[in-house]
Design goal:
Elements lengths: L11 H13 L4 H19 L5 E6 L3 H15 L3 E5 L8 H14 L14 E5 L11 H13 L3 E4 L25 E5 L11 H5 L1 E5 L5 H7 L3 E3 L2 H4 L17 E5 L7 H12 L4 E6 L1 H8 L6 E4 L3 H7 L5 E6 L7 H12 L3 E4 L1 H5 L5 H11 L4 E3 L3 H8 L11 H12 L2 E4 L5 E3 L5 E3 L12 H14 L4 H19 L7 H14 L6
Parallel strand pairs: 1-2, 1-3, 3-4, 4-5, 5-6, 7-16, 8-9, 8-11, 9-10, 11-12, 12-13, 13-14
Antiparallel strand pairs: 14-15, 15-16
The chain binds ligand NPW, adenosine-5'-diphosphate and potassium ion (K).
Ligand NPW binds next to helix 1, helix 2 and helix 3.
Length: 510
C-alpha cells in the first residue's frame, strides 16, 4: 500500500508471488532455498545441544527442500542428523536438487516408525505454504507422534497442519498440526503466525531475510500489517507548544442509567489519559448524581434522552463521541448513534451501541454513508460481531478472522476492531492490522470500555480512524503488560502515561 510504513504480513499466495518476482529478477529458486535452509540450520544449532541427535522430517515439496538443505549443513558441521522422507521423493526441481545433494553425501532416509524419543530435536519440514488440505495418513500420524513425544520441535515456515493464511488447523475437528517450540519463516511473517491458534502452535517465530527485496514484499502485500508503532507512530498526535485544551479535542461520552455508570467513566478517563483535551459524560439526572460522586477531571452534562443528547452536539467542540459502554441496548442508544453520525462526529461504537443495531448492519452502513466521512470505529468482541453481522452472507463465512473483519468493515463503511487475544483492525479501504501484544490478563471486566476510550481520545485529537484504532489496541496491550498480573480495568488508564512516555520519547518499548 503506497506510502504506508509498517511490517507487511503476507498470505502464502502473495509470498509465492514475491518468490516468482525474485526468481525472475535473476536469483535462482535453489539459491532462495539454500538461504532458507541456512536459516533453519542456524536456528537448529541454537536449539539442539551439541551431542543431541537431530531428525529432519522432509515432505515432498519445497518445504521439504529447505529441510534437506538444513540437514546437509548441520551434518557437515559434525551434527548427528537423520532425515525421514515419509511422503516419498521430492516433487519440485529445487527440492529434488536439495534431496540429491543430501543423499549424495549421506545416503538413506530413516524409517517412518523410527523411535522419536531418541532425538533431541525434530525439524518439521513436511508442509509449509503449500498445505492445502488437512493432514491425513502418514502425515497426520507423524504430527500426532511428534506432539506426543514432547520433544523440542523447529518448524520450517509453519508447523505442518497449520494454515499460514488463517492461523487455523486445516480440518480442525479431525485434523491436526505439529505444535512447535519455534518456527523459522522467510522474508515476511504470515498472518497464521499471529492469529490463534496458530500463534500458540508456532512457538517463537523468527523471520529471516532470504534476499527478497523490501520493495518486492511491499508490491505483493495487500495492506496487511503487524500492529506495532511502525504502523501509526508518524500519525500519533503530539501536543504542540501553541496547543490549548480545545485543540486537543473534546470527547462526549454517553452514559447508561444510574446503576450502569462505571463503564463510561473508564472510557472517559482513558480518553483523557491518551491525550484528549477534555472529556464530558452525558447522563440522565439520576446517573449524573452517581457520576458526580466519582469524577474530577471528567466533566458531566445532563442529557435525558436522544433529543437532549442531540442538543449537546450543537456544540461543535464535542468533536468525538463514544457510545455503548453499559449504555443500555435499545432504540434510544441507536438514536444517539444516528445523531452522532449524521452530525459528522468521529465516533466509537462499542458494546450496547453495537447490539442496538443487532441484525441491521445495513442500517448502520446507510447512516455512515449519509454522515459524510468522519471516522467511525466499532469495537465488537466475537459475540457482538455475530449479533451485528450474523445474518449477513459473506461476513461470518468470509474465512480467516481478518477476512471477517474486512468484510464487515467494507459493508459498514467503518473501521472494525474485532477483539480477542488476536485483535484484528480492518478498514473499508482494505487495510488490516493484526495485534499480538495483549496479555491474557487483559480479559477482565471493563477492559473493553478502556479500549473504546483510548480510540475516542485519539480520534478527538484528529488521528485518522485506522491508525487511531490500531494505536489504541497496541497501547491497551502495552498498558496491560506494564501493569502485569493482577490487572483490573481501573489500572489500565493509569498505565497509559508510562506507555506514552516510552512511545513518544523513543525509550525501548515493552
Ligand atoms: N516462497 C518462497 O519464497 C520460498 C519458499 N520456500 C519454501 O517452500 C515452501 C512451499 O513449498 P511448496 O509450494 O512446494 O509447498 P509445500 O508446503 O512443500 O507442500 C508440497 C505439496 O504438498 C501437497 N499437499 C498439500 N497439503 C497436503 C496434505 N495435507 N497432504 C498431502 N499433500 C499435501 C501440495 O501439492 P498437491 O498434492 O496439492 O499437488 C503441495 O504443493 C515454503 O513453505 C518454504 O518452506 C523456501 O524454499 C524459500 C523460498
Ligand atoms: N485472552 C486474552 N488475551 C488478550 N486480550 C484479551 C483476552 N481476552 C480479552 N482480551 C481483550 O480484552 C478486552 C475485553 O473487551 P470486552 O470483551 O469488550 O470486555 P468488557 O465488555 O468487559 O469491557 C478486549 O480488548 C480484548 O481484546
Ligand atoms: K513445516
Amino acid at each position: 500500500m503506497a506510502g504506508q510504513s509498517g511490517e507487511y504480513l503476507l498470505r502464502a499466495s502473495w509470498m509465492a508471488e514475491a518468490d516468482r518476482i525474485t526468481i525472475a529478477s535473476g536469483v535462482p529458486g535453489y539459491e532462495l532455498m539454500l538461504r532458507a535452509g541456512r536459516g533453519v540450520a542456524a536456528a537448529a544449532r541454537r536449539m539442539a545441544a551439541p551431542g543431541a541427535r537431530i531428525l529432519v522430517i522432509c515432505g515432498a515439496g519445497n518445504n521439504g527442500g529447505d529441510g534437506y538443505v538444513a540437514a546437509r549443513l548441520l551434518q557437515a558441521e559434525g551434527r548427528d542428523v537423520d532425515v525421514m522422507a515419509p511422503l516419498g521423493p521430492a516433487t519440485t526441481a529445487d527440492a529434488g536438487q536439495a534431496a540429491a545433494d543430501w543423499a549424495h553425501a549421506h545416503g538413506a532416509a530413516v524409517a517412518v516408525d523410527v523411535d522419536l524419543a531418541s532425538y533431541g530435536l525434530v525439524i518439521d519440514a513436511l508442509f509449509g505454504a503449500g498445505l492445502n488440505r488437512p493432514l491425513e495418513g502418514v502425515a497426520l500420524d507423524l504430527a500426532q507422534r511428534i506432539n506426543a513425544a514432547a520433544l523440542p520441535v523447529l518448524a520450517v515456515d509453519v508447523p505442518s497442519g497449520l494454515s499460514a493464511d488463517s492461523g487455523q488447523v486445516l480440518g480442525a475437528a479431525m485434523g491436526a498440526s505439529v505444535s512447535a517450540t519455534a518456527t523459522v519463516t522467510f522474508a515476511a511473517r504470515k498472518p497464521g503466525h499471529l492469529l490463534l491458534p496458530g500463534r500458540a502452535l508456532c512457538g517463537a517465530v523468527t523471520c529471516i531475510d532470504i534476499g527478497i527485496a523490501p520493495g518486492t514484499i511491499a508490491s505483493v502485500g495487500r495492506g496487511m500489517f503487524y500492529n506495532s508503532p511502525d504502523l501509526w507512530l508518524t500519525r500519533f498526535p503530539a501536543p504542540s507548544l501553541e496547543a490549548h485544551k480545545y485543540r486537543r479535542g473534546h470527547v462526549l461520552c454517553g452514559s447508561g442509567g444510574p446503576l450502569s455508570t462505571g463503564a463510561i467513566r473508564l472510557a472517559a478517563r482513558s480518553a483523557l489519559r491518551v491525550g484528549a483535551g477534555l472529556a464530558t459524560i452525558a447522563a440522565g439526572p439520576d446517573a449524573c448524581r452517581v457520576h458526580a460522586a466519582h469524577l474530577t477531571a471528567v466533566m458531566i452534562r445532563e442529557a435525558e434522552g436522544a433529543g437532549d443528547f442531540a442538543r449537546l452536539l450543537d456544540d461543535v467542540r464535542f468533536n468525538a463521541v463514544i457510545l455503548g459502554p453499559a449504555g443500555g441496548v435499545g432504540p434510544e442508544l441507536a438514536a444517539r448513534v444516528e445523531e452522532a453520525i449524521l452530525r459528522g462526529r468521529a465516533l466509537v461504537i462499542d458494546a450496547d451501541a453495537i447490539s442496538s443495531f443487532a441484525g441491521a448492519p445495513e442500517r448502520m452502513a446507510a447512516l455512515i454513508v449519509a454522515g459524510g466521512g468522519a471516522p467511525v470505529v466499532m469495537t465488537p468482541h466475537d459475540g457482538e460481531f455475530a449479533r451485528l453481522f450474523g445474518k449477513v452472507a459473506g461476513v461470518m463465512d468470509a474465512g480467516a478472522k481478518y477476512e471477517r473483519a474486512l468484510a464487515a468493515a467494507r459493508l459498514a463503511g467503518a473501521i472494525v476492531v474485532l477483539k480477542g487475544a488476536d485483535t484484528v483492525i480492518a478498514a473499508p479501504d482494505g487495510r488490516v492490522a493484526i495485534n499480538d501484544n495483549a496479555p491474557p490478563w487483559l480479559g477482565t471486566a471493563g477492559s473493553g470500555d478502556v479500549l473504546s476510550g483510548l480510540v475516542g481520545g485519539l480520534l478527538a485529537q484528529g488521528m485518522p480512524g485506522f491508525e487511531a484504532a490500531a494505536a489504541a489496541v497496541w497501547i491497551h496491550g502495552a498498558a496491560a503488560r506494564t501493569f502485569g498480573p493482577g490487572l483490573i480495568s481501573e489500572d489500565l488508564p493509569e498505565q497509559v502515561p508510562a506507555v506514552l512516555r516510552r512511545l513518544l520519547q523513543q525509550e525501548p518499548l515493552a
